[in-house]
Amino acid sequence: MSLSMYQASVPVFVRMFGNLSAILDKAAAFAEAKKIDPSVLVNARLAVDMLPLSKQVQIASDAAKGAGARLTGSDVPSFADTETTFPELQARIAKTVDFLKGLDAAQFDGSESKEIVLTLAKGEVTFKGDAYLLNFVLPNFYFHMTTAYAILRHNGLDLGKMDYLGAL
């Protein structure tokens, strides 16, 4: 049995967003327990030239919903990127997961060979669906998920690898 484009995307995204949601719950509880303004964590960065936690969540969301939409020929949902609190980031994750769960596995059939054209800062890039998912979307998604984890860990949140990986 071969792995479908659906199996390589939607369940992966949904699972990781569940893990990120649990991490954000821990971060909110950490801020409350330590009497830290939650906005300090939401706006935290690993380095001055890196994006803050809020943007890491937004970009991970954009990667996942964009992939689901482009691979199925659906419209990419547009979210405003205005989240500034943990509850707003959680709502963003929930909207993304709801969109992904609304996609049917059959909609992904044949998407491995579908032409995907993206307009990036450097210009247009054309992918076949499988290369788009495996070589662009998933690495980008995991980069931003990992960076969100690392920002919170760097700021004192007691997290371990299993928080990132979730239940096996």
Automatic annotation (TrEMBL):
Listed Pfam families: DUF1993 (PF09351)
Gene3D superfamilies for this protein: dinb family like domain
Protein name: DUF1993 domain-containing protein
Species for this entry: Pseudomonas kuykendallii
